[in-house]
Write a structure and sequence with these properties.
The structure holds three protein chains of three kinds. By secondary structure, chain A is mostly helical. Chain A contains six helices and one strand; from the N terminus they run E-H-H-H-H-H-H. Chain B is built from eight helices and twelve strands. In chain B, helix 6 crosses helix 8. Chain C is mainly alpha-helical. Chain C has 21 helices and five strands. Classes of the chains: A mainly alpha, B alpha+beta, C mainly alpha. Chains in contact: A-C, B-C. Strand 1 of chain A pairs parallel with strand 3 of chain C, so a sheet runs across the interface.
Chain lengths: 201, 323, 647
């Protein structure tokens, strides 16, 4: 078919758009759905394994400590306004504030990721002790992996805003904030499951 | 002797039922195959007419044409739905009917799956500790339900005797239960139905259904200790069994042999088959099995036994004498 | 968007074609081949690779049929047989059926929706390489006698550390991980592509049905694959670092694996199968000379199947201990899935009934598909019954059932699709005469192989047995099945011959050899690297038939870089422009580092740190932007430019 009839011209359409109008948002959301669902399946596994035991945690296993994990949860929740602020600044294409937001976000993520590694000791059990220990180590590790990926992305994006900035990176900064929102919010039920599950279930 | 006539018990089939459950399922199958054949035939004939017919609408998208097609498709879907509902109704009724055994005093048997053989225990509350423990051949009375309590020692197996009943899995960590009942006396073959490793293919069993009296007789004998060796050859065979490796894995009631890794051999001589219903229990087959089990069931946990000819001869005489 | 007055240009614009091709074409040479992010290259690679795996799995099947052709055959021992049947199932499911449909989708979807490429071309390329690494890994294991031998379903405890020592199952579990990554990446790519890159005017109710099925399948992948991915992670950890997920002695559970595996495994059946009906619905118009009947019903049927597919998994576990009520639910769901499938078949028959059938090879395979699939569907309803299934579960009856379903629902439509789109991909038609031989041999061979298996199952033959005793009476029917397998084999040979012949001697196809209706036929065969010179505009479900030889288009995308047009999700109104990064080597390298991560992990936990570091390095290069030459792009707006305010 060689004959074409031109009905419109799209050269005036924008190239920098945010939210679901932007492709990157779909990628971030897609992977958040996959990762969130995987974590949900880990939670289901936790409950499934629970019914194999009469006492929970299994006899001879100490309860997990609460102090360190709760501090970390608190820091994560406290960082949400920062992420929302960064996102808003990105949507207004304000480079300076976005740089500051990204630097602060990187620092927060470094701290929470460091605390996450320390959190393994708060579980008070080894992954190879029993099925209970295996699943809580896995949940912690899986979510830790998400944090590590977010940390890497945030630092990378911070560098890009200084070294290779173009306006198309503003939507990326907004999506990066979205991903941190997901990472923190998905941890709330997991935190309750891992640390209060043994006390309440 | 009906029991010695091979190989009629080498066959197993769900469409030749000899038990309450298999019979009910087979009746349901007749309904399924007739319905499915009619539906399939109608679909195929319609398809062929659609392909071959001469008259074609000038405009397939004309509203009248579309309306009549919509009517036909909607009607077909509605008919399908009705068939499915009838199917579900019949299925649920059948499921309830065969879920629990009839209200008669059942026989209880423990089934334990091993790689790659079946252990059957007949618990006896009257004389605890004097349970029958046998392997690969399940004796049951005709016309009486048998509740099978099943567990697995190693991996998942599945108990299946198609002429009598559908299958049920044996799962490590989950005890399961099913029941069977034979309508008529006979020998029914079954086979492990869940892939369980190297010798999954040769993990078979026989269900020997006998009239109540014969069954009681068998049980009486099976409960007793092993027969003492009848002659000096068999006596020598017993020594081979006890001093060679055999007793590490196998038990024989009334002797020092108490191994539980392999089948209990207390009444081995009365069994019809060896190697989990893989071979008829003949002297020749047994000799071949003892000397080189890996040739018959590669991967089996029974090791080869390099016995002198006279030792083997004595061992065979002893084992075949354990009626 | 900018409104422009309609003007008519009848154009040959060679300079524009050259300009676009310079931007979009893959670089020459082997490195250029590794770098390509063109969806057509990736799609073709997926299909070709999957087809090689199809042939390997077919050879494995032939070996099994040879072994089973007579009782107590000594051709294969149990160890080899178990590896071969595990490889056959694993290959067909993970390395053929799903990837081949992913590949077809990746090739066709952008063309069918009038896009220049898929949404995330780099991730897309990476997905292919990860899939390839997974396939190479498991076949390397197989060729050094370390093929998996615990079945494609790898039930624990048989697949656990105690009963499957050695590396065989580890290799299997990591192969699963690789194919999961590939499928998940493809799902994000395709969902975004279908939602955001459709041609202006292609609202969701005008999307070709193959695109709809692709969309539904990608959503299913998104929710099914995490189940097996985490389950195989648990299995790998049980085996490698002594966790206890499946160890009953320490509170683990063997049934946990089965639930997790089948929560993936049953949707997986529909993930493989749904594109097949999509292919049929998409090619029927060309061979009946009318639009497919019942478009809304077909789309709803596909969506309904996608949902119901997640409520069926327990029917693979009817022999395990389950509460009666649960069984009834899964029985009802399993039987009711017949309704949406019935709707599709009735709509196709109605299409043929009111159309004018043209008996070319794609239509023959379509008819064969319907016949075979209907038979498989009948037995499918039967085995929804718990009592009936308790007899035929894990027997050759089931083998017969699902081969009818998969051959009818996947393989026959696939061959119909091959014959249909081959001229689009290569520019040459396949031979019709060979096509007819191909069809009849396959149709006869499939029925000869699999029909007798129904009877074998009823006569008590279990699956996954390496041999059977002569006294069972199964010998004759097994021999028939084995001869049937030879016929299927010869049919595939005819097909391969046809393909090779066509590449050099096939009739030149032209843009639209079948006079078909959808957008991929509006561009040349094979399509140019940029797919369409200008963005096509769609006004209905059959854009080519409706355009009357003069395609409405929109102009104005950049010519100096890979730019695509984004449209709104529901109505596909032009919304924004997006720049693609172009061809790059880093997706390939990133895939290699992922390969290192998981393969080294089989042997030592060091795989994790090593793989992570290498992966992060590769990923940095993957995303790190190139320096731009155009200063206007680097320059940053200090305040919000009015045109770019998010609405």
């Amino acid at each position: 078919m060689n004959r074409e009839r031109v009905v419109a011209d799209v050269s005036g359409l924008p190239t920098v758009v945010f939210g679901p109008r932007n492709l990157g948002w779909w990628g971030t959301t897609g992977f958040a759905v996959i990762e969130g669902f995987s974590l949900a399946l880990c939670a289901v596994t936790y409950v499934y394994l629970r019914k194999n035991y009469i006492v929970w945690p299994p006899e001879g296993t100490k309860l997990p400590s609460l102090l360190l994990p709760t501090i970390n949860m608190g820091i994560m929740l406290a960082s949400l306004p920062l992420a929302l602020w960064t996102k808003k600044r990105a949507e207004r294409l304000e480079l300076g504030p976005v740089r500051i937001g990204l630097i602060l976000s990187s620092l927060v993520t470094v701290v929470t990721f460091g605390l996450r590694i320390a959190e393994f000791t708060a579980l008070n059990t080894q992954w190879n002790s029993n099925a209970y220990s295996s699943i809580i180590w896995t949940i912690l590790g899986f979510h830790g992996t998400l944090m590590l990926i977010d940390l890497y992305d945030t630092i990378g994006l911070t560098l890009i805003t200084f070294l290779r900035m173009e306006s198309k990176w503003f939507p990326e900064a907004a999506d990066n904030a979205n991903y941190w929102l997901f990472t923190v919010l998905v941890w709330v039920p997991m935190y309750l499951l891992v640390y209060f599950g043994p006390r309440w279930l | 002797m009906m029991l010695l006539q091979a190989p009629h018990y080498a066959q197993q089939s769900m469409i030749d039922p000899a038990g309450t459950k298999a019979g009910a399922i087979n009746d349901f199958w007749h309904f399924l195959i007739v319905t499915a054949s009619i539906v399939t035939a109608i679909v195929f004939i319609t398809l062929f007419i659609a392909l071959a017919k001469r008259r074609r609408p000038a405009d397939p998208e004309a509203p009248g044409e579309q309306r009549s097609l919509t009517r036909w498709v909607t009607g077909s879907v509605a008919v399908t739905l009705v068939i499915i509902v009838v199917f579900l109704f019949m299925d649920f009724r059948l499921g309830r009917a065969i879920a629990t055994p009839p209200q008669r005093t059942p026989l209880r048997v423990n089934v334990i799956g091993h790689q790659w053989w079946w252990e059957f225990q007949y618990p006896d509350s009257a004389t605890p500790g004097n349970w029958i423990s046998t392997a690969n051949e399940l004796h049951i009375p005709v016309g009486r339900p048998v509740i099978l309590r099943m567990s697995a020692r190693d991996v998942i197996h599945s108990f299946w005797v198609p002429n009598l009943s559908g299958k049920k899995d044996l799962i490590p960590g989950h005890d399961t239960e099913t029941w069977i009942e034979a309508d008529s006396a006979g020998i029914y073959r079954g086979q492990c139905a869940e892939f369980c490793g190297l010798q999954h293919a040769k993990m078979a069993l026989l269900v020997i259904a006998e009239p109540e009296r014969q069954f009681e007789q068998w049980a009486l004998g099976a409960r007793g200790a092993a027969l003492a060796p009848a002659d000096s050859t068999a006596k020598a065979g017993e020594q081979v069994f006890l001093t060679g490796g055999c007793s590490v894995c196998h038990a024989i009631g009334g002797t020092m042999a108490g191994g539980t890794v392999g089948p209990n051999l207390t009444h081995f001589g009365s069994r019809l088959t060896i190697a989990a219903a893989s071979l008829p229990n003949t002297k020749g087959n047994l000799g071949g099995w003892i000397v080189d089990p890996q040739r018959i069931k590669p991967g089996s946990f029974m090791p080869p036994n390099a016995l002198e000819p006279d030792q083997l001869e004595a061992l065979l005489a002893y084992l075949e004498g354990l009626k | 968007m900018t409104t422009a007055t309609a003007r008519v240009e009848t154009i040959a614009q060679p300079e524009l074609d050259v300009e676009l091709d310079a931007v979009w074409r893959s670089r020459p040479g082997f490195i250029g081949w590794l770098m390509s992010t063109d969806h057509k290259s990736i799609g073709k690679r997926y299909v070709a690779t999957a087809f090689i795996f199809f042939c390997l799995a077919g050879l494995e099947a032939a070996t099994m049929r040879a072994q089973l052709s007579r009782p107590e055959n000594g051709l294969l021992g149990p160890d080899t047989y178990n590896q071969v049947f595990t490889m056959h199932g694993t290959t067909m499911m993970f390395l053929f059926a799903v990837p081949v449909m992913i590949g077809i989708g990746l090739y066709l979807v952008p063309l069918m929706i009038g896009a220049r490429n898929v949404a995330f071309p780099r991730a897309n390329a990476m997905g292919y390489w990860v899939y390839l690494i997974g396939g190479l890994l498991i076949y390397s294991g197989f060729f050094v006698n370390s093929g998996p031998d615990a079945g494609w379903f790898a039930y624990v405890p048989l697949a656990g550390p105690q009963f499957s020592p050695g590396k065989r199952v580890d290799i299997w579990a990591q192969m699963i991980t690789f194919t999961e990554i590939a499928a998940l990446v493809a799902s994000v790519v395709q969902i975004t592509t279908i939602f955001k890159l459709r041609a202006p005017g292609m609202s969701l109710n005008r999307v070709p049905i193959l695109v709809w099925t692709t969309l539904v399948v990608q959503f299913m992948i998104m929710f099914a694959m995490p189940s097996v991915a985490t389950a195989s992670l648990f299995l790998a950890m049980d085996r490698l670092i002594s966790t206890h997920f499946f160890n009953p002695a320490e509170g683990g559970d063997a049934l946990l694996w089965q639930h997790r595996f089948w929560f993936f495994g049953h949707p997986e059946v529909y993930i493989m199968f749904l594109p097949g009906p999509g292919i049929i619905s998409s090619l029927l118009p060309a061979f009946t000379r009318r639009p497919v009947f019942g478009y809304p019903a077909l789309v709803l049927a596909v969506i309904a199947t996608g949902f119901i597919a997640f409520g069926l998994w327990v029917h693979h576990m009817f022999a395990t201990p389950l509460p009666q009520l649960g069984q009834s639910f899964f029985t009802a769901a399993s039987a009711l899935v017949a309704i949406p499938n019935g709707i599709q078949i009735f709509c196709w028959i109605a299409t043929i009934w009111s159309g004018r059938p043209i008996f070319r090879t794609p239509l023959l395979f379509t008819i064969g598909s319907i016949i075979i699939f209907v038979i498989g569907g009948m037995t499918g309803v039967m085995i929804a019954s718990v009592p009936f299934d308790s007899q035929v579960h894990d027997t050759y009856f089931i083998v017969a059932h699902f081969h009818y379903v998969i051959l009818g629902g996947v393989v026959f439509p696939l061959f119909a699709g091959f014959y249909y789109w081959w001229p689009k991909v290569t520019g040459r038609l396949l031979s019709e005469a060979a096509g007819k031989w191909n069809f009849w041999l396959m149709f006869i061979g499939v029925n000869a192989t699999f029909f007798p298996m129904h009877q074998l199952g009823m006569e008590g033959m279990p699956r996954r047995v390496y041999t059977y005793l002569a006294g069972t009476g199964w010998g004759d029917l097994n021999l028939v099945a084995s001869i049937g397998a030879l016929v299927i084999f010869s049919s595939v040979v005819v097909f391969l011959g046809n393909v090779i012949w066509s590449l050099r001697h096939g009739q030149i196809a032209g843009a639209n050899p079948w006079n078909a209706d959808s957008l991929e036929w509006a561009t040349s065969s094979p399509p140019p690297s940029y797919n369409f010179r200008d963005t096509p505009v769609v006004g209905g479900r059959a854009p080519v038939w409706e355009s009357g030889g003069e395609l409405p288009v929109m102009t104005g995308l950049a010519r100096d870089r890979q730019q695509v047009l984004l449209t709104t999700v529901l109505d596909a109104e032009p919304d924004s422009r997006h720049d693609h990064p172009g061809h790059t080597i880093w997706p390939f390298i990133l895939a290699v580092t992922i390969g290192i991560f998981f393969i080294v992990l089989i042997f030592t936990p060091w795989g994790m740190p090593i793989g992570t570091v290498l992966g992060f390095i590769a990923y940095a290069r993957y995303v790190w932007p190139k320096k731009r030459h155009d200063p206007s792009i680097i320059e940053l707006p200090r305040s919000v430019p009015p045109a770019e305010v998010p609405r």
